[in-house]
Design a protein that fits this description.
By secondary structure, the protein is mainly α. The chain has ten helices and no strands. The chain has helices spanning about 10-20, 30-50, 55-65, 70-80, 100-105, 110-120, 125-135, 140-150, 155-180, 185-205.
Length: about 210
């Protein structure tokens, strides 16, 4: 498998392009932000690829032309930007997120609520509501994003089925919340059953 290490050290003009922006539309600030996110995303991917290597920091330093002392700051920045999954404070670990894989390929990731609206054929406001419920159910939104992105485009007939499935899912999540509030189920049972509901929605969508 070809990794970022296969590229070797970046020549200065290429590194400068990473730092100052790409050939893209938008304001200078937006272009610089996207450029920075793409850089951090590639660092996040290489960080995950080299976890456990005794010379991990040196590999990242050589690949992107930063000093060894500055590499930990870049890893922290990537994690704060949502490009690496959380880990225990002070402990190495984490994987590139859905956003990181998009940025590392030079792609702007779509907004999650817009993705949900497109895949389920529902209004944007309703998609936002579905995501609020998923957040409230402590769902892993990175996995949710990957699941929705993997869903095929829908035809008109499947759009209606998706809307019905979404309403059913919403009601089931609300019922589980009521049961938790009433002390009828444990938090562990509540989380497990919420995950089953969302997984079932994905399976029906496919």
């Amino acid at each position: 498998m070809r990794t970022l290490l296969d590229v070797g050290s970046r020549p200065e003009p290429d590194r400068q392009r990473w730092l100052t922006g790409f050939e893209a539309g938008g304001t200078e600030g937006a272009v610089k932000r996207r450029s920075r996110m793409e850089l951090l995303a590639r660092i996040a991917v290489l960080y995950a690829e080299t976890l456990g290597d005794h010379d991990q920091v040196d590999k990242i330093s050589r690949a992107f032309g930063y000093s060894i002392d500055h590499v930990p700051n870049l890893i922290r920045e990537a994690r704060r930007a949502g490009l690496l999954t959380p880990t225990v404070r002070g402990k190495a670990g984490g994987a590139p997120t859905w956003k990181a894989y998009h940025y590392s390929k030079g792609q702007e990731p779509p907004e999650l609520d817009e993705l949900v609206a497109e895949k389920l054929g529902m209004p944007l406001a309703q998609a936002k509501s579905v995501l609020r419920e998923m957040r409230g159910a402590d769902m892993d939104l990175d996995e949710v994003a990957r699941g929705f992105e993997a869903m095929p485009a829908r035809n008109a007939e499947r759009d209606r089925a998706a809307r019905v499935a979404s309403l059913v899912t919403r009601r089931r999540i609300e019922q589980l919340q009521h049961q938790l509030d009433a002390g009828l189920i444990t938090p562990e049972e509540w989380l497990r059953r919420n995950q089953e509901v969302i997984q079932e929605m994905f399976e029906k969508g496919n």
